Amino acid sequence: MDETPKILGGVALLGSGSSIPSQRVTNDQLGLRVETNDSWIKSRTGIRSRHVIGPNESLTEISQVAGLKAIQAAGWDPESIDIILLATSTPDDLFGSAPQIQAHIGAKNAVAFDLTAACSGFIFALITASQFLRNGSMRRALVIGADQLSSWIDWDDRTTCVLFGDGAGAIALEATNKDLDGLLGFEMRSNGSRGDSLNLSKSKKHLPLIKDISHQEGSYMPIQMNGQEVYKFAVREVPSVLQKLLHKTKTDPKELDWLLLHQANQRILDAVADRFDIPQSKVLSNLSHYGNTSAATIPIMLDEAVRKGLVKPGDLIASSGFGAGLSWGAALLKWQGPS
Predict the structure, then answer these.
(1) Which of 232, 273, 288, 319 has the maximal Cβ count within 10 Å?
(2) What is the model's pLDDT at position 338?
């Protein structure tokens, strides 16, 4: 193989994959734990059930399954992959879970590392990986979005426990000629001054070490969320960043085949679609089945749409991730993989 760097300038989206944990928890089942019911949850969020990683599963395992499916869909040999990015806020190993995925799938020539940006993670990782491919330093990338938020929820807090679930999704990317580019534009934003609206903070508990010296315990608090503030943030900032992206790429919303947003709340999806006069038939949503799987929502939804034959080669997709940080971003994509 010729290893001389070639700057092609484009990125092709060639394959997708996803993996969902086996344990399914319905709204009615949650009602046995906290004071809630299916009607209340469904009317406010659109969620009907979610999946939770069980005793014989792990985030690393479902991530590698999703990654292998994406590689197979692209028709790649795992040894041909140059980089693996795992977008996650809940790794099995705080030092990074991507290297374990790299080893398990046999991508021995790939560098692998984690990227943390919560619900914006997949969009941020997709954009980051694309830069390595566009500048000619690498040829093939596997981008995985995966989270296990079930480990960090207070299951007795009905305001948050109804929202989240676990899952993993992946996309295979390859450098290509600029005129075949599948990442037509992107925008990225952060506002740390509002990060207290949604966080998973380190515990403040201190334990004695020696004499007058203490150390901070290595643990985290459950997810804390101001639902109203996050909702207002999303319905304001997501249309704004998408508008900037469409303007920059000279794209009319009517040209879009699909709107693919982070699956956080059905009301957010509906509000953004209404803002651009996009019909519901073009809004991809599987929120009712999985809830908010954080960095996994966008690649899981894309993989399902591809495998169902909804998303076809050449389709134009506007996508946006948003959430904790606070962070948000958008990407205009053209699917080039198998239908």
Answers:
(1) 319
(2) 75
For position 5, what pLDDT does the model report? 61
Catalytically annotated residues? 119, 262, 292
Q: For the beta carbon of residue 27, count every other beta carbon within 10 angstroms.
A: 21
Classified as helix, coil or strand, 161 is helix
Structural domain boundaries, residue 104: 9-180
Q: Which pair of tokens denotes residue 268?
A: 């957010």
Q: What is the pLDDT of residue 1?
A: 45
Q: Scan for tokens 């207070």, then name that residue.
A: 154
Q: Judge if 143 and 233 occupy the same domain.
A: no
Least confident of 168-182, 221-235, 293-307: 221-235
What are the tokens at 41? 């949850």
What is the enclosing helix (H) or strand (E) of 320? strand 316-323
For the cut 70, the answer to whether the pLDDT of residue 161 exceeds it is yes
Q: What's the rounded Cα separation, in Å, for the pair 128 and 140?
A: 13
Domain boundary among 180, 212, 238: 180
Lateral strand order in the sheet of 258-261? 183-190, 327-334, 316-323, 258-261
**Residues 13, 161 within the same domain:** yes
Stretch among 65-79, 80-94, 183-197 having the lowest mean pLDDT = 183-197
Name the residue with tokens 């949604």. 198
